[in-house]
Amino acid sequence: MIEIKDLHKSYQMGSNSLHVLKGLNFSIDEGELVAIMGSSGSGKSTLLNILGMLDEADTGEYTLDGVPIKNLNETKAAKYRNKFLGFVFQSFNLINYKTAMENVALPLYYQRVARKEREEKALKYLQQVGLKEWATHLPSELSGGQKQRVAIARAMAAEPKVLLADEPTGALDSKTSYEVMDLIQKINDQGNTILVVTHEEDIAHMCKRIVHLKDGVIVEDKKVEQVRASQYV
Amino acid sequence: MFSRDNWKEIFETIQKNKLRTFLSGFTVALGILIFVVLFGFGNGLINTFDDFFGDDATNVFYVFTGRTTMPYKGYKANRTIEFDNSDLEDIKKNFPLFLEYITPRITRQDTVKYKNESNTYPIWGVGPAHQFSEMNIMMKGRYLNVEDIKNKTKNAVVGRLVEKDLFGAQNALGKYIDVGGSMFKVIGVFQDDGGDREERNIVIPYTTQQLIEKNTDKIDAMVIGFKPEIGYAGAMGFEKSLDEFIRSKKYISPQDQNGIFIRNVADQLKQNQQFARVLQIIVAFVAFGTIIAGIIGISNIMVFVVKERTKELGIRKALGATPKTVIGTILLESVFITTISGFAGMLIGIAILSSMGEKLEDFFITNPYIDIRMAVIATIVLIIFGAIAGYVPARRAARIKPIVALRDE
Questions:
Q1: How many CB atoms lie within 10 A of CB B311?
Q2: Which residue has the higher pLDDT, B5 or B26?
Q3: In the predicted structure, residue B352 carries a pLDDT above the cut 70
Q4: Which end of chain B is more exposed for a tag (fewer CB within 10 A), N or C?
Q5: Would you list which residues of chain B are within 8 Å, Cβ to Cβ, of chain A?
């Protein structure tokens, strides 16, 4: 599903150049649940941004579902993001003046799905994350965990190939974190490919595979025995 | 870009961001409102001007008498100058090339009665040409003619409002009115653009007035119409020779500021027109400034709006909004708000202007109005510039990478 070869990325910081990614190689198959771990500055967020087409690599190859991702202009990147990827952010990033349902329906709006169908789909995904009764509520009326679940429903609504989650539990307490991870595991159980960036060991062990990044290189890439989050909920 | 779905999205955004909508709408509405009202007031000032000076013919001299202040050719100072009928004939004889018409004017005031109605009106003893100098328009009947003058008839021509005052809904034509004790037959009713005052005049043959006043031949003033084709320079020359002619006939020192006065309407009109033009330029300048201020206002708000929405736009981009849709949404939204509020401001402004009417006449503003086309053009200009002002920050916002926009503060 995802394949990267010899990925390099550096940032220009004044006169110095900061080499963040130093030749990454790995691939992710369909249906995997991968945790990308590393301390801050290890390059994990940069990697996720490149995978999410929010940023572009300097050199190297990136193939997503057989499509080479390179020389993207803004419009093309936006279309690929909409078609291939779902994002879950640490700070939820819901639009605060839209209700839960409208937030979930937004990616479908950019896919030019008709309004009625959008609403039906949004409700379906809200039900999946257990928030159907909260459909007409604004984000300000939801708790942190509920917001993240709405964000996950939004990411799923466009039916993406890959779900990218950047510290999805970073702003949540541990109980809520496990609830969110439980949801992510269930979505993965349905066969969806998911990438989770985290720096928390316990969250990483709820995935099926851990890729350890340190100073821009992969130091460890191992399959792990998945810890089910449901036992903590 | 204009699908129903997009509009719905825009309406929702507008509805749910009321402060933002209000701010941008208010700026535009206020800008246009002030523009319309200012421009209308400017036009009102110009109207007042036209009312003051525009109702009489412009190829006219008014010649008045006064008291001399200097001794001259054996005559003492402080002598009252008077015109009589012979002066009319002399001027006619001496200036045939310039003169188009001449009429005396004897100005009196008297109580006029018809049945139970009575009122005091200015009574003007004049000649037939007076109709041209005053630009009276006959509504019915006729004006005084040469026969009236020759036969000293007791015929009167009354203003529109005199008929209304004394006769109500009745027809005044052919009725007899009592003017200071003498009965006059109404032979005509006139109207005048000069306003109510001018339509409350009664004119009678000057010869009749002289007859009533113990058969005198004195006249108060002369109204002299010159041929328009002599032009402005010709009129000035005519005024000068007329002045010299009357002074020599009446023995008035050429240096005497009093004695006689000639009011040259053409000269005054030229000055007034210049003043009105300057006024118009000032008004246009102020109005232009208002529009500029409006454009700056809407630009500021657009910058603020886009800044405020940076994060939202970043989210939308991450979810698949292309730069084009981002710019399109912002622009459509701003154009929609500015259009609605711009035209609302314009209509309110026009409503204010038309409700004013003559209420501000004390401030020299009569019937303020604005050419609708002018108001619409100004509104459209503001909308277009609002869109341009919105486009620049919108384009910048569309270019911001979502990761930058989404970075946690």
A1: 19
A2: B26
A3: yes
A4: C
A5: 5, 8-9, 12-13, 16-17, 311-312, 314-325, 398-399, 401-403, 406, 408
Kindly provide the b/e burial profile for residues A140-153, where b requires at least 16 CB atoms within 10 angstroms of the residue's own CB: eebebbbbbbbbbb
Give dist(CA B141, CA A108) in Å, integer: 81
Q: How far is B7 from chain A (nearest CA, A)?
A: 12
Task: State the count of interchain CB pairs (< 8 A) between A and B.
Answer: 69
* A interface test, pick of B319, B329, B401 with most A CB neighbours within 10 Å: B319
Q: Which chain A residue's Cα is nearest to B309? A: A95
**C-alpha separations of B395 from A80, B321, B346, B391 in Å:** 21, 13, 30, 6
Test A106 with B12 for CB contact under 8 angstroms: no
> CB–CB of A111 and B320 under 8 A?
yes
Average pLDDT over residues B332-352: 90
Q: Which amino acid is at B341?
A: S
Answer for the pair A184, A33: CB distance below 8 angstroms, yes or no.
yes
User: Cβ separation of A97 and B13 shorter than 8 Å?
Assistant: yes
- The ranges assigned to domains in chain B are 4-53+270-406, 60-265
Interface with chain B: mutation pick from A51, A74, A88, A91, highest number of B CBs within 10 Å: A74
Q: What is the pLDDT of residue B101?
A: 92
Q: Which listed CATH number (3.40.630.30, 3.90.1200.10, 3.40.50.300, 1.10.150.530) goes with A2-232?
A: 3.40.50.300
Angle between helices B85-94 and B231-250 (to 10 degrees): 130
Task: Identify all chain B residues contacting A81, using CB atoms and an 8 Å cutoff.
Answer: 317-320
Give this complex's ipTM: 0.87
Dist CA A97 CA B409 (whole Å): 19
Q: What is the pLDDT of residues B133-183, one digit of tens each?
A: 888 889 999 999 999 999 999 999 999 999 998 998 889 899 999 998 889
Give domain limits for chain A: 2-232
pLDDT, tens only, A46-94: 898 889 888 888 899 999 988 888 888 888 888 888 889 998 988 889 9
Tally of CB atoms within 10 A around A192: 21
Q: How do residues B26-60 score in pLDDT, each as one tens digit?
A: 888 988 998 888 888 888 887 777 766 656 667 88
